Amino acid sequence: MTTLDRPPLAPLTPAVPARRLHRPLLVTTAAMAALAVFSLGAMAFDDRMLLGESVWLKPLKFAIAMVLYCGTLAWLVSFPHRGQRLTWWMGAVFAATAIVDVGFVVVQAARGTFSHFNTQHDAVNTIGQWVFMTGVPGLFLANLVIAVTLSWQRVTDRPTSLAIRAGLGIAVFGMALGYTMGFSGQQQTTDAYGHPVRLGAGHTFVSGQPAVRDGVEGMPITHWSTAGGDMRIAHFAGLHGIQLLIVAAIVLARLAPAVTWLRTERTRTRLIGVLALGYTALVALLMWQALRGQPVTRPDGETLTALGLVAAVTALGIGIVYALSVRALPAGRHAAVSAAVPPRASTPPMSR
């Protein structure tokens, strides 16, 4: 008696194409990580200073920021989505521009002088400032195109998709805040060798615009100003809000199996929305505080009142989401629990 060969069974679920992280952005992320390590080592052996901080502190801060942001973009554009070719090219533009712009920061650190707002007329600085004038808008526009392309579509589960859209929007706002620094007024200072340097602007807003504002009083490690309103704080908070929102979405998903009221995607999406609005208000508050020339370490009554209002409205929003979720539990508890965590074999929405 012979046994007939049976055809292989078709897979129960369609194959999910493997996601490839954006290679140019990954290369840039690795290069920036290497720069961060190099800058830390250089700080230990090079004692030259600019405005009271190591010449290598700015390359270190830029390297860390780019590791976070380029790594996040590489992950984001790897999701299947409409307009993927456009976002790939914009990611490549962002990666290349980041290398060039941060490269100039490194060159100026090695020369012992300023990269930002430097008005000196030597050939290296003149070319570098032209690079900045063309490169920074390139970073901004590439990020803006990616944000707009992803903002109108769902690339993964609803809470994370909202975190991505809101985070990219906040990041665009944070990048735009960098342009406000150009209105802080000129400064007269010296480079690492004591040579006079005139800066066209600075990071710190101080009433009366004294000749030197940056580097007068600074916080530990970051050297953000405690003498005036430092726009770098709002700029930094805006750029990296996307990482916080994505982490929040991941944490909420991890808590969902154990916390009943978090088990529906709708509830977690609403919470991400509340957190995004609260964080946007916080970045706006930091911008407002800096423009008034007020140090972040010495908030006045108006700032504290505004901060309390942001915290209260955010807490109220979370409370409303909780109340709506608990109210819906008795009618749809079993459906909510079963839909909380998709089966392992399921595929993301954009891969079906």
Question: Can you put this structure into words, describing what you see?
Answer:
60% of the residues lie in helices and 5% in strands.
Key features of this structure:
352 residues; two-stranded antiparallel ribbon; disordered N terminus
The main pleated sheet reads as: 2 strands, antiparallel
Mean pLDDT equals 86
The chain-level structural class is mainly alpha
Low-confidence stretches: 1-17, 334-352
Kindly state the number of beta strands.
6
Beta-strand residue fraction: under 5%
Strand sequence of the main sheet, in spatial order?
A: 1-2
Helix content percent band: 55-70%
Q: Distance N terminus to C terminus?
A: 43 Å
The rough form would be described as globular
Order of helices and strands: HEEHHHHEEEEHHHH
Number of helices: 9
Radius of gyration: 24 Å
Task: Note the topology.
Elements: H1 23-45, E1 49-50, E2 53-54, H2 57-76, H3 84-111, H4 123-151, H5 158-177, E3 187-190, E4 196-199, E5 204-205, E6 229-230, H6 231-239, H7 241-255, H8 265-291, H9 301-340
Antiparallel strand pairs: 1-2, 3-4, 5-6
Helix pairs in contact: 1-2, 1-3, 2-3, 3-4, 4-5, 5-6, 5-7, 5-8, 6-8, 7-8, 8-9
Summary of the model, kept short:
The chain is mainly alpha-helical and 352 residues long.
